[in-house]
Amino acid sequence: MLTHVDLLLNSRLRNCLQTILELKEEMNGLSFDLIFFDEISVIRNFLRQIDDMSLCEDDVRRIEGATEQLLRELNGVFDKSAKLSADRGNFRLQ
Question: How far apart are CA 44 and CA 13, in angstroms?
């Protein structure tokens, strides 16, 4: 049986993975491709298994940090894509 701490860690990990999955949906309409999104099915499968996992704080913090870094890097990609689209008169991002 999972403890309260396990449930909190699982929830934090689930949040990171769901954020990545949501990014995939946002990026589908953009004119560039990111290789790591080819592995999206691995993330979906992992997400289904989280409820039964016992995690440690350090692992979850590393994943949160990696997710945060990904968001920062993609923010720059979204900014560049929006600028390029706007330059062509076809602004797609809101």
Answer: 12
